[in-house]
Amino acid sequence: MTCEAEDQVDSLGERSVAEGLVDPRSLIHPVRAGNTLEATFEGLLRLIKVGAVLPGQRLPPERELADSLQVSRSTLRSVLGDLQRHGYLEVRRGRYGGTFVIDSAPEKQTDVTVDPRQLQDILAYRTVVESGAARLAAEADLQAPQRRGLRRALDAASAAAPEDYRHLDSRLHIVIGELTGSRRLVDCVVESRALVNDLLDRIPLLASNLEHSNHQHQELVAAILDGDPETAESVARAHLDGTETLLRSFLNLSA
């Protein structure tokens, strides 16, 4: 996905806010104690992988990003350099310059063996987090801007080109998490999507699966907008079950 120069001057989240989507800046939190370099790298990479920051979108200025993460600018520079070397970011010079998410993602690993216990752990976590988020979103007293934002996220996912689909699919589910009003739950949805996207990137993206997934998204959003938590949770679980079946069919599982 490419952006016009006028869009490229927007920092992280400004275009998303204008479109009624989740503001990625709300997903940037202070780094916890421990290995600061590793935690900062993993946190920023997670936002890129789930599409919270889209290809062609510019990161915030270094000072702002360091303040949000509560890390030193030297630590942040080191992490940004690592992400650039791994093929996720690029630095552009000039009037509209800055650090941007690269348009072409690094080549995916497709032949990695997956431990079935690890897969089950990820899928169980995702089921609890995302079906619970769907239910709570349907129970929430949604205001007009939230309802518009949800519809726009649905429209964006439905109209996505294959190469953008998983990013915009993830954005839709993160928007649903945002509707619950729970920051912790949103963080869990982001983590869930990052874990699953790592697995989905190893299998083919089939047109028939996209069509079915989009249909389930429409049912899910309709249930949330109708304030029907039982249906929202049920549709979310069916949607997640479909992904589980797909992963188990294509992944190379170890004994």
UniProtKB/TrEMBL annotation:
Domain HTH gntR-type stretches: 34-104
GO MF annotation: an example: DNA-binding transcription factor activity
UniProt KW keywords: DNA-binding, Transcription, Transcription regulation
InterPro entries xref list: GntR_C, TF_FadR/GntR_C, Tscrpt_reg_HTH_GntR, WH-like_DNA-bd_sf, WH_DNA-bd_sf
Keyword Transcription regulation carried by entry: yes
CDD domains listed in its UniProt record: WHTH_GntR
Record-given protein name: FCD domain-containing protein
Record keyword Kinase present: no
